[in-house]
Structures are given as C-alpha cells and as structure tokens.
Amino acid sequence: GIAWGSSLYEVGKFLGLKKPLNITVVQLMGGLNSSETINPEEIVKQIARRLHASGVWLNTPAMMDTPEIKKALLSDEGVKRVLTKATSCTKALFGVGDVSDDGSLVISNALTVAEMAKLRDMGAAGNLLGWFYDADGNPIHSFVSDRVISVPFEDIKRIPHKICLATGCNKAVAILGAIRGGCLNTLVSDEVTAQEVLRLARQ
Prior knowledge:
alpha/beta, three-stranded parallel sheet, two-stranded parallel ribbon, 9 helices, 7 strands
C-alpha cells in the first residue's frame, strides 16, 4: 500500500527488482490536487512501474467538500473494492504530515489555513493518510474525518508492516505521536530528526 509525500516520490525513483514478482501496489488514499511529487496517484504509478507490479488506483479526491459527497463516493462499488483491497495489504509505505500552515494538505488546497488552525486547537499533532491524531496517537474525530477518503485509521494500524518515511524536525511531534499510537513499526528518517523525536519522547 502506498500513500503520499515527497519522500515517497524520491524513494520510488530508486526502487527496483532483479526479476518481476507477483506484487500489487495499492493506493491507500484519494488524490491531491498538487504536484506529482506528493500526489499518491503519481507515486503509485511510479513505484508500480519500478517494481514491475500491477497498480490499483483509488480514483477519488482525498478530501471531499462535504460529508454527503464522501458518503456518495463510498457507496460506489469500485471505490469500495479498492478500499477493501487496501485493508488487506501486508505492507504500507507512507509519510506523516505535521499540522503547520505549510503542510501538504494545505499546500494542495485540501484544507485551508483556517481549518488547519482549528485542528491544532482540537489537539491535532499530525496526520496519517488524512486522519488527524493527537500527541499520543489517538485519533481526533473532526470535520476532516467526515470528508477524507482513505483507508480507515484503525485499519492502517492492522497492516503487518508499516513503513514511515519522514524527515525534518517540524515533523518530530507527528512522528512520535504515530509511534505512540502504534501506526508504524519501521521509521526511515535522518539523524537530526530521529534525535529530536528521542528528545521529545524523554520529556
């Protein structure tokens, strides 16, 4: 399963297999109206090509304008099939987002600056596939929960091997929250970010 983020896009450039395997790459969340470097549709396409794998795309936006639109799309059989397949993934590769005004969800116009500020006021520390959580990794039910289309938060946690790619001290709180919440079991980061996560964990 593949999500979004510039780090994933860069990693995808260097993936490769000596011989094709029976692999399916599944998009875990809807698309973002943004550059290809963070759009999950483009990242799935690139990784599937590099791994000689088949790709399964979730052809919806990541964030709906209203809960009613989300409900209608989730009733579509094609969308339901992709999300069901996504929940059966054995591995997931994703990033985490911080809650700053220049986070990916704001840059891609999925959320406004005012909406992100409201999420911070609700205690949000980070987001994983569009689902927001607090500093201890507990999910925050908000207006976003009723609009996002991606694998449900609890189903992400049930994927056996969850690999998170995240760098930058601005994401340290989000990374630590994801760890505490059991949302990942492998972290790929840089030394400075890892040290900051450890410093926060000791507080």
